[in-house]
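Please go through the protein record below and see whether the fold suits the sequence. Record follows.
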Amino acid sequence: MRNRLIVAYLFIALVPVLSVVLLAIQAGKLLYTQLGSYLLYQDWQRRIEMLADGTEQIASALNSRVGGVSPEVAERIVAAQEHEVYDARLPGLAIDFADDPKLFRRLVEPGKREFAGLVQQGQDLSLIAMRAVKTTRGTRVIQLKIPVTPEFLATLAPDLGAVLVEIVEPLAPGAGNVVPYRVGNQDYLRVHSLRAKGRVLQPPTGWFDPDVIGSSRFEAVRLYDDGKVVRGYPVVASFSARPSRLNLRMFTSIGELSYLNFIGFFTLAVLLLLIESVALVTGIVMTRSVTRAVAELYRATQYVQAGDLTHHVRIERRDQLGELGESFNRMTSSIGELIEVENKRRRLENEISIAREVQNQLFPSTLPSVPGVEIEAICKAARSVSGDYYDFIQLSPTHIAIAIADISGKGISAALLMASLQAALRSQVLSDGSDHLSMAELVSRLNKHLVRNTGDDRFATFFIAVYDSATRTLRYTNAGHLPAFLICKGVSEQLDRGGMVLGVMEDYAYEEGSLTVGPDSLLIGYSDGLIEPENVYGEEFGIRRLQEAAIHVQGATPLMVAESLMAAAEEWAGTPEQADDMTVIVARLR
């Protein structure tokens, strides 16, 4: 681990430095490439400006010639003087005077009387400067011309190495597998090249003096044989250079002060290297202390693995590693407690699983078959064990009991109370003569059972109804539960006769409600989880909306009615999260 940490410190210390160095190298290459392109372009333009200045000087000299000197003699004298001035810097310079302005008209833009620039005719390149002057002989065109030759290229930008000028032609469609030059939206193909005579890349001054390759683009006036003139025609020039030569060029204007800049730069670099070295050594020393503490922790884990929770790590320093050791000691002290908590959690999960299985057995597995009665129920638990309960019990061929309850609490305690309530209910309604038992009496007995056999904080809301399909009579009692309602021909009637919740007061007298059911009626019972969902404005779904939703689908099957009511409540809430158990029972009474 110690070696790994040392390697990590090396990466942390060196990788950023290497990244900065690589970035600096790339930035330097970009800088030197741009500088070389600038030097080549500026020297090229300077030659063009020298030609333009030459035409202006010749024009001034001709206009101020001494009387008695013929124009031809004056032109020869002025041309000779210009050759003396420019021949060394402009090899191949040709000075001409012409009366025919044909070429002049092709090169000069409308409204101007002079031209200076690069001209391409076929594969020939020339620097040309032209100026029209009025003399006693009429308009004369002064032309200074330098052909772009290897000898001329050798005089350009002496700080650069080899210089290569490439002449290109537009690439024809379907030219094959060639690598073109892309200039704007046009592809060009190299057809001819000129290399500076005697120009080679200077030898490096050291390993830190690599070669730099760059390019520059010039714009020429292209003259075609058919008289067509294209301005802005590309001419590509490439070059090689050494950073050391470009540095000398950059710092020439500074002179001796440039060495001070270099000394300052290298001093800063050495200082940063020393700081980096000190940081690396410090990291290695700290690594040793870290690994020593980690080794002590590892030995302590071996004791824990062997089952010895009494071993403690020795604390030598009050730093984060020391706090880690103290944390380990506290951990070993609490492992036993955590194991006990985990065992309790597993036992609780097992009990909940058992309670869930028990509760699933409490719900009716099959629906009773009573003529003229169709029943469906849906229960969605908010937790793994629901606190809602419903039951359908067939008392006789024409009698059926329908019950729904909401048990206080959640989880396993609710399941146990539910099982107790179901056992008491079935023992009462399945005894002989139960089909004629008063609902108020039945609920009173269930109330006494809960009061006597449960704690003071346990209670249940309860609704039970017995329907006789032969007489179409419905008898019911509501013990503090949300009132079920009966829908017949689009009219809803609440079934709210009864009394308080079960399990609170032992000697409580409940009331029984009775009514005659109309044909094709719907009996709907539900828990509070179905009406309490709130929308984004905090409004509950409510009993009224539940009744309206039921009336809207009263002609559907009981299953479709139940699903529609569930969907309406969930849509109102707008969230899949349930705050409470949701239960609905639907009975179609034909």
Remarks:
- The longest strand covers residues 229-241.
- The chain has three domains: 2-250, 278-362, 363-589.
